[in-house]
Design a protein that fits this description.
Elements (H helix, E strand, L loop, with lengths): L6 H12 L4 E7 L2 E7 L4 H6 L4 E2 L19 E5 L5 H9 L4 E6 L2 H17 L7 E5 L15 E7 L17 H10 L5 E6 L2 H13 L2 E7 L14 H8 L5 E7 L8
The structure holds S-adenosylmethionine.
S-adenosylmethionine binds next to β5 and α7.
Length: 259
């Protein structure tokens, strides 16, 4: 083929192939090598009949609690991928409800299968986890303050390293401001990433957007944090010896000054 992969191509291929997300092929268009990802044909039909997948999330705004067996603390995971994290958290903590959101239905198809098999293995009904396909850029259209989100997880979001693409990051200030509208004062975002520049810039984004960093580490797996649940990307990066950055950012609303 006479083509040398650059670092970005290698990283993308490793992610896709090692996680078995998709079939990936390399094609050449106008002299440039592009990655083409083949769809999982079974994902959408399976999601269409899945009782814990919401196909019209905008209609649930303000009443997500109706999706779950019990009204209890409500968590979100943004960019959930194959659902490894949300499924394990929901199983381990039956006293919370969690909505896992991803933009890609193919990913959610795999997440659905993972949730079903994990809960079946443990003889548990799937009653405290829900999935939906949505672009987090517009999160305010599917969630409101009435939903009482009390914690948000962002695990290994795409780093978007080029300056012109940084605003697409799930931790970019315009999105952090939207998440703050959903959370109560003191509500937390738990953020993990392998990518140090993304981590350091996100710490600044949190500060700019009215959050206080209440915990941070550049080496989560050698820290004092207990009960960490590994995501699919976290497994892959740690196997390569890459340390995991983690922080907890809490919303801090300015207190009204008594007159
Ligand atoms: C690098 S993967 C991480 C997956 C998983 N959280 C993990 O830790 O293994 C990033 C995920 O975010 C999703 N994503 C990216 N941008 C998104 C957006 N704007 N809205 C919703 N999901 C998004 C992608 O589809 C992908 O599944």
């Amino acid at each position: 083929m006479g083509y040398k992969c650059n670092q970005t191509h290698l990283r993308l291929m490793l992610c896709a192939l090692e996680c078995n997300f998709f079939y990936v092929i390399l094609i050449k268009i106008k002299g440039k090598v592009k990655l083409r990802i083949r769809r999982k044909k079974w994902a959408r039909p399976e999601l269409a009949v899945c009782p814990f997948f919401e196909s019209e999330p905008e209609s649930c705004r303000g009443r997500w609690s109706e999706h779950f067996a019990k009204k209890q603390p409500f968590y979100l995971e943004l960019g959930c991928g194959k659902g490894t994290f949300a499924s394990q958290l929901a199983l381990r903590e039956p006293q919370i409800n969690i909505l896992a959101v991803d933009i890609k239905s193919d990913m959610l198809g795999t997440a659905r299968r993972n949730i079903v098999s994990l809960f079946e293995e443990n003889n548990r009904a799937v009653d405290n986890v829900a999935l939906t396909a949505y672009n987090v850029e517009n999160i305010e259209k599917i969630l409101s303050r009435e939903d009482e989100v009390c914690r948000i997880y962002i695990n290994f979001c795409n780093p978007w390293p080029k300056p012109k693409h940084k605003k697409r990051r799930l931790t970019y200030p315009n999105k952090l401001e939207k998440y703050a509208q959903l959370l109560p004062d003191g509500g937390e975002i738990h953020f993990k990433t392998d990518d140090l520049p993304l981590f350091e810039e996100s710490l600044e984004y949190f500060a700019q957007s009215g959050y206080e960093i209440v915990y941070k580490t550049n080496d989560l797996h050698n820290s004092d944090v207990k009960g960490n649940i590994l995501t699919e990307h976290e497994i892959m990066f740690s196997e390569q010896g890459i340390p995991i950055n983690f922080c907890i950012a809490a919303v801090r609303r300015p207190q009204a000054v008594p007159v």
